[in-house]
Amino acid sequence: MAMTLRGRPASAVLTAILLAAIAVPALAQTPSLGEIARQEQERRKGLKKPTKVLTNEDLKNGGSPPEKTKPQAQPTRAEAPKPSAETKKSAEADEIKSEAAWRARITTARDELRRNQVFAEALQSRINALTADFSARDNPIERAQIADDRQKALADLERVKADVEKSQKQIADIEEEARKAGVPPGWLR
């Protein structure tokens, strides 16, 4: 009769222990995802080689291979042409059309809305506390001070509620502008 450990044959337990002993060091030797990404990035850097674009002129030469040319010297910073007004406008137009610009606009508007909503909730809590404190006081001077503070908080709450409405309208305007400009909906999420 074979030895058993808690109802299992000893050979099955030994096999499981051996497999675990082999698998643990193998798992420890696998490279991390970050390391793999770094290696892939280095490999891709080595692949970038300047290529020559074939034109119709090259093909008119009887299909002969293009001549190897020396790369032209890059202009220094002092020699670089200054951007004209047209290039600045086109750069601004490209920026307006970019996903990052749309995401930044909608994120800023949504953050402002959240800030205003949290501030409105805090003011409402303060107003509730001042109302309870007002009713608990007997001293007329203290009651007058609390009533004054409550009135200021109510005025602030009205101003913040108006800011919340402005923020909501701003978000709706950005979404409408994006829709008219043909911006994919995913850019505004």
What is the molecular shape?
flat
Gap between N and C termini, in Å?
68 Å
- Report the sheet with the most strands, covering strand number, pairing sense and barrel closure: 2 strands, antiparallel
Q: Would you identify the regions where 5 or more consecutive residues have pLDDT less than 50?
A: none
Element layout with pairings:
Elements: E1 4-5, E2 8-9, H1 10-28, H2 33-47, H3 56-60, H4 85-97, H5 99-136, H6 140-181
Antiparallel strand pairs: 1-2
Helix pairs in contact: 5-6
Report on this model:
By secondary structure, this protein is mainly alpha-helical. It has a domain of 87 residues. Helices cover 70% and strands 2% of the residues. The protein is built from 6 helices and 2 strands. Strands 1-2 form a two-stranded antiparallel sheet. Helix 5 packs antiparallel against helix 6. The longest helix has 42 residues. The mean pLDDT is 77.
Key structural traits:
flat; two-stranded antiparallel ribbon
TL;DR of this structure?
With 189 residues, this protein is an all-alpha fold.
